[in-house]
Predict the structure.
Amino acid sequence: LAAPFVPFLSEALFRSLSGRGLDESDAGSIHLDRFPVSHPELRDEALEESMSTLLRVVGLGRTLRAQCGLKTRQPLASFEVAGGGESLNRVLADEDLSTLILDELNVKRVAALADPGERMRFVVKPRFKVLGPRLGGSMKAVAAALAALDPSAVLDAYRDGRLGVTADGRDFELSREEMDFGAEAAGDYEVGLDGPLSGALATAISEALAREGHLRELVNRVQNLRKSAGLAVSDRMRLRWRGGELTRSTLLEHGELLAEETLALSLDEGLTGSGEAETYTLGEEEVGLELEKA
């Protein structure tokens, strides 16, 4: 595909990948080769379906993180999902695939949600601009009927794409385009919908999770400070810090990991005024970092 547009680069790649030297006269050419033939029998359609479901689950989780303003660096306790059918069950039962979700969303646990009503309440509202001209004087009665619906009926309507209600003694059939669906959290969760999926992201942050999140923030700042100091990737350095109780407890528990991640030979409290230094506001704490090449 690339050969007509970048002929020389494509030729070099072709010869390199096929184990032929650039100087060989009989090495063949990508420009004379036949177009590759596909082999449909080699496709793993079950895996493709599982990956499609996985990407949708991760996408929903990221959306919920963005909605509640929690960065991916902050670990969370759990993400629960419903509505994915057998494909979702296969993904969650596969250790490799479920681990991908854990890593992408930075959560400790991902699980199927048997009853979405335990974590959220489903609501539906009419789109007045769309329905008004069609329903006329019955608009308010239909809106009241939608507000009175049982959450489980709203969820069924969301998945089916249609909803029937009775108002003003008449039956009305509404399509997905005429309604706005949503979910309201029950407890410390951020909830949302995406196609057939409904998800609940636990937003309560324990002290242990807070320390893990703070560690990730510290690693990020130290790595940026290394770049500012002009250190090479393999350079060792000595790190000094100043901060509050969260920083102190985080380094007490995870100091060795921070040193390993940032190639710090020492980790001492208190700044000396020498070396590359910067002050950051992380959460509710002001943290000072200072480093010198070892």
Q: What stands out?
A: The longest strand covers residues 285-293. The radius of gyration is 28 Å.
